[in-house]
Fold these 2 entries.
Entry 1:
Amino acid sequence: MKRELEHLLPADIERRSFEIISAELEGRGIVLPEETAPIVKRVIHTTADFDYAESLVFSPGVVETARAALRAGAAVVTDTQMARAGINKTSLARFGGEVRCFMSDPDVAAGAKENGTTRAVASMDKASALPGPLLFAVGNAPTALIRLCELISEGNLRPAAVIGVPVGFVNVVEAKELLLESGVPCIVARGRKGGSNVAAAIVNALLYGMEGGR
Amino acid sequence: MKRELEHLLPADIERRSFEIISAELEGRGIVLPEETAPIVKRVIHTTADFDYAESLVFSPGVVETARAALRAGAAVVTDTQMARAGINKTSLARFGGEVRCFMSDPDVAAGAKENGTTRAVASMDKASALPGPLLFAVGNAPTALIRLCELISEGNLRPAAVIGVPVGFVNVVEAKELLLESGVPCIVARGRKGGSNVAAAIVNALLYGMEGGR
């Protein structure tokens, strides 16, 4: 049991982790733009997967747009309870925002059944009626992302920004490309990879950058 | 917007995804043991990361041991609310179990502060007093895993099994090796990768295999 383990508290571990990530990115010859670097690094911190240094795509100005929405008290809408659990709600509340996830709502389940669709789609429909600026964080369901693109192109939704990082093997790559073509401010993990943990990490990185901290 | 998207419902998407994963594993020349294959595939399904086909390690008999505990109504203890959110609680409840996570408890925060340790450590201490069989699912904090190893070696905890899949850059690799050497039945993602989503996926795969389904 007497392996060499460093005795560090969480804040130290996080700082040390980001130093390691920065050094390894440099070693790989990857130079990230100053504005997006903390977001990419936090996703790598969450996944230990350097693929995200290549796959994360930011539409022009999306970081400032998303932060302006959060500063205005935007609600963050997720497509899983896991993403909701992973978002720092204390930090979000500082700006007046909260996380909304309708996936477990009985009316969403009923609506999905009635329309022969997924709960993810029905939950996006429900979210589109929310007032105020909205930041969507989709880490699981490509159907949620596709529905968001439809709502936007029909003129029935104008989100401040969409974080589109569902994970998977069916319709996932295509749904992300749809979002990238939609013209809406977005952060996308191109390819198959992503997840609720990645969605939450991106929201948290946006928030932490606003706090002047990490 | 008229890209070729397949119109499939979640159950179809999942089946199709597992077919793709199985085919790609075969294409890579990877043959998984029958007992552990559904667990490895579910982790790949959750992450779209085939590295887990190589990094997931199962101690002998751990799948049957963990399932016996779940069948006996074992509680599943997590080190994050995210892992708790990701575990299929309906499925778990069918066998009489529930998920416990003490990370947000005020006494855990107070205990961590008093002892100069992490909340993850304090939450494992609290969990060690739970009655009945326990299945630990650690997807985030290496300190939680290290504390579990200490409690076990001191004779103060005898978990049915430990899922040790924390993610990160500091003490993570070492903590997992400690667990592998502890002799306790365990499932470990060797190396840096892992996460709350991976921990939840492993618990769910154990449960789904008991239901005779997926």
Entry 2:
Amino acid sequence: MTYCVAMCLSDGLVFASDSRTNAGVDHIATFKKLHVIHRDKDRVLVLQSAGNLATTQSIVSLLETRMRSDSEPNLLQVSTLYDAATLVGATLREVIDRDSRMQQHASTTNFGCNLLLGGQIAGEAPRLFHIYPEGNFIEATRDTPYFQIGESKYGKPIIDRVLTRETTLEQAMCCALISIDSTLRSNLSVGLPLDVMIYRADSFDDSGQRRVTEDDPYFATIRKAWSEGLQNTFRQLPPFSL
Amino acid sequence: MTYCVAMCLSDGLVFASDSRTNAGVDHIATFKKLHVIHRDKDRVLVLQSAGNLATTQSIVSLLETRMRSDSEPNLLQVSTLYDAATLVGATLREVIDRDSRMQQHASTTNFGCNLLLGGQIAGEAPRLFHIYPEGNFIEATRDTPYFQIGESKYGKPIIDRVLTRETTLEQAMCCALISIDSTLRSNLSVGLPLDVMIYRADSFDDSGQRRVTEDDPYFATIRKAWSEGLQNTFRQLPPFSL
């Protein structure tokens, strides 16, 4: 399983992904699920993935390979994030179609995946898309400024309670990390390290990336403070009486 | 969908259930999912249900009808909660077997349900069981003093953070209501009113029941205080910095 969250806010974009993949509880590995494409002063694209690892790796490989060829449509050519989402969706369909057609027998294997694609291309504001296993997609709006993929339920309530479009990027990343912490505690198939990125609108800068490990002092501080804060808040609630 | 939670603590048992059932978003109704069987000074049994409503209603009807007959094994005859769970599991299998065999064609209908059975029978301590759609069951222990059925993920993190076996019944009910509140906010198929019950160990008293509606002053108070407490806690966390 996986948990990825991305937020599209007034100041820019926030991304956070876990890195655990598993095929059964005894086949666990670490794979980065956050991929960044950057061309100076022109575009920053961030792709997060959840689902079949063979599918998501192939999509990323094909997208990257094609960026080195001028003869094929690729992510360095598109002029809007919408066109980028269309291209990623088409690549997703291509991979799933290829891999599922190769099956000699009817198979119950799920080749599907969900992707989050966020970023900015010069001439546009930052945008964020959720691309479905069918290759179609939806875009984040002012009303719904964030998307989650993978094991999303445990970490959803905290985001719904605190995130608005005007939340600062630094607070939003704190919220994303708390959301992931709630998920880590409840689901073993979501695991550290985390890959996170802050993208400030109009910066066209991809340097806001960081890997958050088990002993990251900031993550440890907010996990502890959040847990204690929840417990203090709970202790102050009036007990039920009939 | 549904959300039910039950807790088996040092002081007794706590139960809370929503009441929404739905077959599609345009077919929503209110059904009580918490059923109490009581015989003075001898037994209190509480059954909560999630899943196919036809199945769960039939199980409750059969269990209640058979309590009025001395010739059939019933919940007034069993001498342990374990035997009660066995009987409920057998009734569950009987109903699912009956209804799924009646299908003339292969059907994708899910006749299954999950049940929580808690209570006390004279001679034993209070106990709590989770009965699966297969009719088998597990029992709550000191390490895992609570069970959830239905839409359980949104409301799990808060329980994991605050509940211990030594939590008082009144605090535990507060925790259960907060857990349900988190679920209500995230999933439309879980809805008010709630049916809740506190059972104090060795009381053999079923009077600790209450229906919690939208305008219940206690529920409104803790929802507001919890939401504000979370937001205050969040505001005090240090923002992320790269």
